[in-house]
Write a structure and sequence with these properties.
With 107 residues, the chain is mostly helical. It has 3 helices and no strands. The chain has one domain. The termini are far apart.
Length: 107
């Protein structure tokens, strides 16, 4: 009886942890989206660079949705998503600080 109660409590805790982890992934995505938009607004990203970064963000979002489809993001899925997010973060920084700039129209 006690072991089934412990298993039940652990299952509830595990189920509760998964949405929180998904939320941190979403928070990270929102931050990266803000960085891309900021780079466009400041002229640090060309249209092509921004488009490629947006596509990369879309792939990560699709990966996250697919991982969540079964109701739980597993540790390997979370690790893969975080790896892709870190790569995107590095790409954003690299592209915002390279020598390519968007052309600004002056009046």
């Amino acid at each position: 009886m006690k072991s089934s109660m412990v298993i039940g409590i652990l299952a509830i805790l595990a189920a509760g942890a998964s949405p929180a982890l998904g939320a941190s992934i979403q928070k990270h995505q929102a931050n990266e989206q803000r960085r891309i938009n900021q780079g466009v607004h400041r002229g640090q990203l060309t249209g092509k660079e921004a488009h490629r970064l947006q596509n990369q963000q879309g792939v990560i979002d699709a990966e996250r949705r697919q991982a969540r489809d079964d109701g739980r993001i597993t540790r390997p899925e979370r690790r893969d998503i975080r790896h892709d997010q870190k790569r995107l973060s590095r790409d954003i920084r690299h592209k915002r600080h390279n020598n390519k700039h968007a052309r600004r129209h002056h009046r």
